[in-house]
Amino acid sequence: MGGSPDVIIAGGGIVGCACAYFLTEAGARVLVLERGPLGAGASKAGMSHVITWEEPAMHLALARASQRLYAALAETLPGDIEYRQTGSMAVAEQEDGLAPLQAMLNRLRQAGVEGAFVDGRGLRAIEPRLAPDLAGGAYFPGDSMVNPLAATRALAEGARQFGAEIRTLQGVDGIERGSNGRITGVIAGGTSIPTGCLVIAAGAWSAEVGRMAGVDLPIRPRKGVLAVTAPAPEAFLTVKAILSAGYIDSIHGGDGAGGAAIAANIQQVRNGNLILGTTRAFSGFDVQVESRVARQMLARCARLLPDLRRLQVMRMWAGLRPWSPDLLPLVGPVTAAPGLFVAAGHEGIGITEAPITGLLIRQMIFEQDTELPVGALSPDRFQHSTPSGGEYDQEVQGRVRRQRDTV
Ligand SMILES: Cc1cc2nc3c(=O)[nH]c(=O)nc-3n(C[C@H](O)[C@H](O)[C@H](O)COP(=O)(O)OP(=O)(O)OC[C@H]3O[C@@H](n4cnc5c(N)ncnc54)[C@H](O)[C@@H]3O)c2cc1C
């Protein structure tokens, strides 16, 4: 790429690569700076579910828009992103889990999500390997899956073909601002690269990059453990994503004190392997897999799907979700630093929401009408003083619950 880039993107995960793809498609000259290899963060460590029933309404809108974009990208991107409609299920173990599930389903149906309530027998009619004593569940036939790392690479390659420069193993080490606060360049590889526009798409590391610009982004790493089994026959599961009904509560739970919220999440990927998850814990940037937590997680998965005990676990790892205090991503400009944009904080739904995030960033940078109203995603919502630590988490979780209850 000759001359200075119009836009520099800090981070080559799925979100940064989606931003690069949509910006270059519209003619922008883009440089992606990724400190590791492409997808080195959560994007290589996560699961594959494009989940279109996560509340509140903002997530539903983002997910639906992304699903439409994925269907188109699967046709146009260079490389197979393994995108396919698979359906998904949320399963309640006990009778007392049915009422909240039904209430959630009612809200979702009102919002236009296709879903059906099924009793225990109905569950096994759809997915015969489920445990015989499960109380019931919700079936979402429209959900889909994608290979996150393949999608990251294909978005990057698509951007490259439109003219983007993608530098791996070279991170952003500093951010330069003019006397009026405007972004003027970044420092990478020991040199200053001039640009008028920087997008922070550094996932769980976005706060660190924000600090380089003197901007406080309240994004924290939230650890999630996964296991992968040896390949099972393709027909092992009919519905390729099965979650415990408590999964959504685990998103809003978690901890500040060393424990982990655990909820079963089972996904069969295209080559037959089953990915088993998952946990949520705030433990800084530590990605160690603790055996006690891993054992509990595997037991929860086998409780829903007893045949899992016959499959061999080949590998376990942990990834860092980029958590934001209100569980909505930060997508848009930072008013205090003209030229600075953020595309980060998607927590456990960033694979799903990456394409629409890339499109919205393009529309905002090009000052076009946006696909969706984006006020709720503005990074400016956090640019005020906030309490800290557990007090902050409690206050925020209360706010999130109230928001969810009003959907
Ligand atoms: C266990 C688990 C299961 C999940 N399952 C799902 C799922 O089924 N469906 C779903 O939708 N989502 C899922 N997610 C969430 C999803 O993986 C993330 O939300 C998404 O990958 C975030 O993408 P990102 O590009 O924002 O961040 P990342 O992929 O973390 O990318 C950020 C990048 O920035 C780079 N970086 C950091 N600092 C710098 C710097 N100074 N300069 C340049 N680069 C820098 C990092 O190296 C990294 O590559 C899951 C996550 C986990 C952990």
Strand content is: 15-25%
Computed over alpha carbons, the radius of gyration is 21 Å
Low-confidence stretches: 385-407
If strands are numbered along the chain, what order do they take across the biggest sheet?
A: 6-7-5-15-16-17-14-18
Roughly what is the average pLDDT, rounded to an integer?
92
Q: Which molecules other than protein and nucleic acid are bound?
A: flavin-adenine dinucleotide
Structural class: alpha+beta
Give me the count of strands: 20
- Specify the oligomeric state: single chain
Distance between the termini: 46 Å
The backbone outline, from C-alpha atoms, is elongated
Q: What level of helicity do the residues show?
A: 25-40%
Number of helices: 11
Give a short account of the largest sheet: 8 strands, mixed
Structural features, described:
The chain is of the alpha+beta class and about 400 residues long. About 30% of the residues lie in helices and about 25% in strands. The chain has eleven helices and 20 strands. The strands form four sheets. The chain has an eight-stranded mixed sheet with strand order 6-7-5-15-16-17-14-18. A six-stranded mixed sheet has the order 9-2-1-13-20-19, with helices on both faces. Strands 3-8-4 form a three-stranded antiparallel sheet. Helix 1 (about 15-25) runs parallel beside helix 10 and helix 3 (about 55-75) packs across helix 10. The model is unreliable at about 385-405 (pLDDT under 50). Bound molecules: flavin-adenine dinucleotide. Flavin-adenine dinucleotide (FAD) binds near residues 12, 42, 51 and 204.
